[in-house]
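User: I'm curious what two different proteins look like when written out as structure tokens. Can you demonstrate?

Assistant: Sure. I'll show them one after the other, since each token string lines up with its own sequence. Here's the first protein:
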Amino acid sequence: MRRFALALAAALVLPALPAAANADGVVRITSAFSVARTVDALEAVIGKAGATVFARINHGGGAAAAGIEMADSELVVFGNPRLGTPAMQADPLAGLFLPLRVLVYGDGQGQTWIAYEDPGAMLDDLNIPDDAPYLAQMRGALQNLTMAAAAGG
């Protein structure tokens, strides 16, 4: 876990914009790049940080294949067992919410957004202490990875 955090911190040069969850627990930040380029950058920084991308789901492409118009939207599902396993040890139901997910989407006005649910909010109803160290580590990883992707990787 320490290696993951150190690699993440050393590998990423981040803009000075803080990410904070809204009242709904969802953190939203803007990207200056297209959805596809932002997701490519996100995948790259996830790999550099030592985590695994399990899936890249193209919601917009699925809608287009069904003949339905929708702005670009892709979901990236990823994780690192060193962060997720302790949560599932504390409460096996954490497996319903993990691995972590980040949505990158266009708003139809030309703006690309990156969104994810704050891990504390996501796991709030489970038997997981609010001060569990892995929640802070997940929160930090999500913030660092998404901010790096928003900056183009």
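Here's a second, unrelated protein for contrast:
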Amino acid sequence: MIGKLTGRLDYRAADHVLIDVRGVGYIVYCSDRTMAALPGVGEAMSIYTDMVVREDLMQLYGFLSLVEKEWHRLLCSVQGVGAKVSLAILSALGPDGVSRAIALGDWGAVKAAKGVGPKTAQRIVLDLKDKAPGVMAMGGTVTEALDGPALEVVEPGEPASVPKSVARQVSGTAAASAGALSALANLGYGPSEAASAVAEAAANLPDAGEADLIRAALKLLAPKG
């Protein structure tokens, strides 16, 4: 199983790229957001991948962070959701947006993705709500791209290498949310209530750092009245 590719971006299409890894070209399908964050043609790049193998199909899907890859895996585990629908959801919401929507039970946000009906959106939220805290706790930090092209297969939990500019984009909100979630867990809050509070705080304060998210989440969790 190919878990990560590191090489040179050879070609860009609307929904996929061709990555040259030591003379072998790999076609990798990505969400719109991931496509927009990738470097230019001819530049070095590294990306997490997930391979789908069926009797009539073998395709690679690419992700900038473990959070995005994990949401893709979980979304595809829901009945009626395939890779195309998963990428549509990640394109519309991004991994942080998916985390917030699932944690808050906001199936309306999921329904906004192309090709997702209300029943499917509700099923996604219902099936994955308990998984949101674990995914949010993964954060989204990635590291700088390697200098030379190479093919790597990595185990889950090991950081992928992408350009610094992309690393900053991916790591900001996800890392702050993960830190806030960890802090609330240390204070004794349950995973689901902590995830919902952090998700709501992040939605209200999209540029907030970890400390601000913790304060905002604690206010939401404070007894009313």
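A detail about the second structure: The chain is about 50% helix and 20% strand.
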